[in-house]
Design brief:
By secondary structure, this protein is of the alpha+beta class. It has eight helices and six strands, in the order αβααββββαβαααα. Bound molecules: zinc ion (ZN). Zinc ion binds next to α4.
Length: 293
């Protein structure tokens, strides 16, 4: 199943709210949530591939929104007591700071108040009450309300706008619930590179047994190993590589190489001796006599 980034436009408000409640503690004042973490050097190619694909998708989503991607998406190295070096992908949940706009109140906004007294809009419940019901402290520290500051103010629930990066994170999470890869081509490429690296290492190890081979011999034999070896039909992942099979196969191909080379030399020598015997009498050793000369 191919990942479809345009799904972020089809997310309904309930899905987003639910995801935000699950991922984000609104009262914490922390505007970012961690959406993906990765243990470095775990050799988990799938996790690495998904992490890097997710980073790309989140950055792209943030840019679609015509903002600076760095503001919405962070890729941070962390240090984990249990796992050592980790990385964390974090995204900004809301497009605007999800806070009461009354002076420096800073508590989470809960309602939007349309009032001439305060044009900021999003307010915490206390400041909304202050405008619509009056200041409770007016009445001398009883909990009765005073006169409303603006009796005509309207109050609606605050529905914060989610950032595009957060929407993309939700789509990514939905995709990964049903399918292990974000980008299968990226994963295959990583898998293939890892396989090639291990195979090269195993071949270099096998070559150590033949220190007498010249550089050009080593190169020719290795090339034949990679192009003709029967491992090609059997292996495609790093964990497939069997070092003793590599050593055996390398030895066989090396033997074939030297046998065929010896055969070539023998053939050439016998061709020479045929020429020598070409009825031209007794040419000196090593002297080539061409037929008809
Ligand atoms: Zn407030």
């Amino acid at each position: 199943m191919r990942f479809d980034p345009t799904e972020m436009d089809n997310l309904d408000a309930d899905t987003l709210k639910e995801a935000a409640e699950e991922a984000h503690d609104k009262d914490s004042g922390e505007p970012y949530v961690t959406v993906y973490s990765l243990v470095e050097s775990s050799d988990d190619l799938m996790a690495e591939s998904n992490y890097s694909s997710a980073l790309e998708l989140l950055n792209a989503a943030a840019v679609w929104n015509d903002k600076d991607a760095d503001e919405y998406v962070t890729d941070q190295p962390c240090r984990d007591w249990l796992f050592g070096n980790t990385r964390e992908l974090r995204v900004l949940v809301y497009e605007e700071p999800n806070q009461c706009t009354w002076d420096e109140c800073g508590t989470p906004a809960e309602v939007v108040v349309k009032s001439d007294v305060h044009e900021g809009g999003a307010l915490c419940q206390w400041h909304a009450d202050w405008i619509t019901l009056g200041d409770p402290f007016d009445t001398g520290w009883t909990w009765e309300r005073g006169e409303p500051v603006d009796a005509n103010a309207t109050v609606t629930p605050y529905e914060p706008e989610f950032s595009a990066a957060f929407k993309m994170a939700v789509v990514i999470a939905q995709h990964l619930r049903d399918y292990p890869f974000l980008d299968e081509d990226d994963y295959s490429e990583r898998e293939w590179k890892a396989y090639e690296a291990v195979l090269t290492e195993a071949v270099e190890y096998a070559q150590r047994a033949y220190a007498e081979d010249s550089d050009s011999e080593v190169e020719t034999i290795a090339q034949r190993f990679y192009e003709e070896g029967h491992h090609r039909d059997q292996w495609c992942r790093a964990e497939d590589v069997n070092w003793s099979e590599v050593a055996d196969e390398y030895r066989e191909i090396r033997d074939e190489h030297f046998t065929s080379q010896a055969q070539e030399i023998a053939d050439e020598l016998s061709a020479r001796s045929l020429l020598v015997m070409d009825g031209r009498g007794y040419p000196g050793p090593g002297q080539l006599v061409l037929p008809g000369v």
